[in-house]
Structures are given as C-alpha cells and as structure tokens.
Please model this.
Amino acid sequence: MKLDPSILARIQFAFTVSFHIIFPTMSIGLASFLAVIEALWLKTKKPVYLQIYKFWLSIFAMGFGIGVVTGIVLSFEFGLGFARFAQMAGPAIGPLIALEVLTAFFLEAGFLGIMLFGLHRVGPKLHFFATCMVAIGTLVSASWILSANSWMQTPAGVAIHDGHLTVVSWLHVLVNPSWLHRLPHMLTAAYLTASFMVAGVGAWYLLKGKHQQFARTTLGLGTAFAAVLIAGQVFIGDILYGTMLKHQPSKMQAAEGFWEKQSQSPAPYYWFIVPDQDHQRNRFELGIPYLGSIWLTHSLDGRVQGLKNTPRDLQPRMGMVFYAFRIMYGLAMVMFAVGVASLWLRFRGKLFSSRWFLWILAFMTPSGIIATLAGWYVAETGRQPWVIYGVLRTVDAVSPVPARALLSTLIAFVCVYGVFITAFLVFAVRIIRRGPGEAPPHAEASGSVKNAFRPYVLDNPERLVNGHITQRS
Amino acid sequence: MLNSNQLHRLGALAAALVGGLFFFAIIGVFGLRLAIAGLAVFVLGAVVVYVAFPTAGAES
Model:
C-alpha cells in the first residue's frame, strides 16, 4: 500500500490540533470562571466560594499544562508537515504565533505560579490580581491565535509577488475580515464549555446527594452563565454565518447540504444526508420542510445556494462540513433549550430537585467541548482545498518528507497523547469523586517529583509535611 | 378548572414556546434589529430571573 504524505500530514495535524483545542477551551473558560468565583469570595467571604475555587483550580491547572505542551507541538508541526505553508505564510502569521507564545509564557505562566501556589503565601488581593492576569492572558493568547487562523480563512493586508508573501498592512493582517466575529464566537464557546462543566459536576453531586451547598452554588452559577452565554452565542454565530457566506460561500454551501445552484422552494432544513461528492448529489436526505427557507433566507419560500456554485476542484468535502455544522448547531439548540429550562425551573424553585433536568445537565458536561471541536471542524474542513483561502492549496503546502516519517510521528503522537488524555481523565475523575470537601487546601510544592506520582499524596494531603510523606501515627 | 399540575405543564409549554420564539428572533429570522432586541430582552430576562429568584439554599 502506498501512503500519501499529504493525507498523512493532514491526519497528523487534524489529530494534534483537535486534541490541543480541548484544553485551551477549558482553560479560557475556567480561568474567567475562577476569577469570578474569587471575586465573589473576596466580596462575600462565604467559604463555599473558596471551596469552589480550590476544586476547579486543580482541574484548570491540569488542563492548562496539557494545553501548553500540546500547543508547542503545533508550532513544530508547521515545519514537520507543512514547511511550504510555513515558508509562504511565515511573514504574516509567524509574528502572531510568536506574540501568542510570549503572552502565554510571560503573562499566563508567570502569574499561574502565584495562582496555583500562592493562595496562602501572598495577600488575597494580589492572588486575585494573579487570577485575573491569567484569565486576561488566556484571552490575549486566544486573540493572537484566532487572528492567525482567521487570516488563513480570510487573508488580508498582504501582497504576493513571485510566490513570496509580503505584509503591506499589519492592521489588516491582525483585524482581518473574519477575526472580529470569530474571536467572540470562540471565547463565548470557551465560557459555555466552562459553564456546562461546572453545572454538570454540580448536577452530578446533587443526583448523588453529596456536597449540597457546593453543588447548588456551582449549578446555580453555571446555569445562569449558560443561559445568558448561549443566547449571545447563537447571535454571534448567525453574524459569523453571514460573514463566512460572503467570504467563503463554498463552506456554507457545504454546511447546508444542498447541491443544486438554487435549492427547491421552499427549502427544507436537512438534519441527515448521504452525500455523493462524485455525482454531486445526495443519495438520501431527511429534513424539516420550510425550515431551510425560514432559517437561511428569512422567508417562507427562499432558495438556498448549493455547492455546484463552486467549481468541483475547489469544493470542500460536503459530508465533513455538513455533519460538523449539524453537531455544533444541534448542540447549540439543546444548550439554548437547557438555558430556557433552567430559567423556568429557577422561577418555579425546582432547579435543584428536578432529577430529569439534573441528568440532562450531567450528560451535558462535555457538550461545550464537543460543540467547539465540531465548530473547528466546520472552519477547517470547510476551508479546503485551501490552507490559506484563495492563496495556497493544502496539497501544495505539505513538506517534502517521506510518508514513513509522517506515519511514525503520527503513531508517536497518538501514543503520547493517549497517555496525556488518560492521565487527565484519571486525575479529573479522582478529583470529582473525592469531592470539594476533601480537596487539598492548596497546591503544595512537595520538594520531590516522586510524590507527585503518588496517589497517596492527593488522598492524604495532611500527611505531606515539609516535602516528605509522614507515616500514620 | 385546571389543577396545579396541569397549570404547571401549561406554564412549561408556554416557556418552551417563548424560548423557541426567542431562538428564532436571535438567529435573525425576523431581521437584525429584532435579533438585537430579542437578545437584549432575553439576557435582561435571564438576569432578572437570576436576581429575583436566588437559589442557594432556597430548596430543602
């Protein structure tokens, strides 16, 4: 079997970037959540807020660490798998990525130390300042990366002569046509992710009858944030949809599942299709009549543009874009319904006692992560066959390296990342099962790496004295 | 006459319909102006419900 380097390079980048994006999404959302919780603690002095802070700080720290490590890998992959892309786009996106790294290392990582280890070592206001700096750092980091990625979606501010790219306006590179909409869309996705995570864990404790005050406070806050944020997210998403329809029509044509240049009137809204890219048709379609016209054209009989408006060699794969969009949009609708239900149950005083709702929240715990991943799949698969839209094709951006090198590194990434995700899930589940009451009062510098790998330390923090594990008396 | 349970079910149905209407408005089905207005009213309503019906420790 002959392996295609361009396919392997794409699989490798898709795998590593999909894995990576899970953790910054959690970190951005949780960092701001922690800042809000610490502000509430400083204002009210209620111990439950400190309990919530300490509990989520542990999970945030793990996610932050994995996010940083897996992010660095992506920079190296530009050279490993997409050297021609790096060579061409370097003048535009190189500085943006460098600024992201600077922000991450100097602002976030600097204050992260105080945030993690300084709760009882610095004053409460300085600690709160550190938490805010970490939260702001995650936002600034995200804005640089979103600027770089949005420039790949809607390139601007550059001139190309003989295949060489020159920046003519940094302002237009930074504030490119899609950045102003994609940045708030991504940040709101991160906040929604954190909201559903904290609400889901609170719901789980209530279902199990544990940690009542902690659970009620986190569930109450999580659902309140979620209700407001999801309304904002669908609004921003609709604005972004219009922007991408203008700048990347092929992406949105693929996302709606229509092939003909003009759909039938009225257009249905498809929820399930079996696309046949070779014959430019759907083998099977299942949708809701009229809804496509209403949602996409805002009229009862409007027609929707299909993918045949884009030349065949410039079309993305419809199946990937369509289903990624349906997962994202479907989850957004469920989140909106959950937000409305939470307001109704809060109004009726049944927010904590409706078990059906608690079960839904518990199942929705990872919904933000799944929706964010799906959204990124829409963005990246919908841009194909371009890596820089309209400028450089993905197939022309791949490094001239043997397929074996890409395959071996892909296997290595899968193995190493498998260890990462297993470790993260094992420790996150341990922290959640142990509960907030027994969480260590604050992260301790043990003085020995060995102790970090001993579950005993996590379970018995009181036994850790001056960096040594004491024996039971 | 409707009993309490039926009234609550009717209320839940009304809440679902109002929620659906807000969703359609916010995604721009009725135009950008109504989308902005719908978003503002929904967020304001959520904040009012949050402030007027505090939950911590409210239920047994």
Remarks:
- Chain B has a mean pLDDT of 84.
- Chain B touches chain A through 33 residues (CB under 8 Å).
- The helical segments of chain B are 4-26, 32-52.
- The longest helix of chain B spans residues 4-26.
